[in-house]
User: Fold this.
Amino acid sequence: MATEASSHFATIKAGPLGVMQVEKGLFLESLGGEEAARKLDPEAKADAIEDFLANQLKAAGAPVGDSANGDKHYPTAAQVEERIETRPYRMGAGFLFVSHNGNVKKLPRMPAKSTLLDYFDLRFGAGTTRNHCLQSATLALKNGMTEEIILACLLHDTAAELMRSDHGWWGGQLYEPYVPEKVSFAIRYHQTLRFYPDKEMGYEYPELYQYLFGEDYIPEPHIEAAYQMLRKHKWYMEPRLVTTNDLYSFNPNAVVSMEPFLDIIGRHFKQPKEGLGYDNSPVAHMWRALARPDSPL
Assistant:
């Protein structure tokens, strides 16, 4: 039983279950959180991983096949659609609004005049978006990316706390009033480029997508249209560099910190003096939804 680094998905080798990528946050949540996971001995953790993988494969509608011989099976797009009614939640719902392990937990109140750092601390989950985005930005920093690309990597998946479906567009909109145009552009369109390999940049189509969407999945027309636009756009490399610093950014043992990015945030993020959600911007309601996810109206 072993794990390898990959985006915010852990690639886990699990004996007869072969090799599969799973979302670290969902796995940790299935165990009761990171603290509970740390208390497991190696044998118990191995059993938990195998059980989790088996359930994930079952949920994905993907038969395991003969993994020892490299015989992998992926669901079709039709099979993916058939499993919609097997879950009590929508896959597109934001991480902040859905629990995969019992009831949701009460969240701490946001401070008055909340800042971006407050949202990282109190609303962007450690097992869902926060650690993943910090690792992505850390990799971009290590790879010598520009400050705009580093900031885009730091923010790129945080909107998935609000909405996973079309999270790139949600993220681009969420940050547009506060960051340089190239940053919001990179955030908005990194989602599109995840579906399209780029051999020159060393980017391959994620194997996980064959489980999530089906081996015969064809991107939606709006995704294809965005891709064709991007191939001709002078800023194509901005979202592409987010994908190349995203794919291999997850390491379950990595220790990451916001400290290296504080100056970059200070230079490029326009923090409203009223606090995010209360500055009457076109996206203030989105920040309030993150701040108050238990409000019925």
Residues 140 and 150 are 6 Å apart (CA to CA). The radius of gyration is 19 Å. Residues 2-91 form one domain.
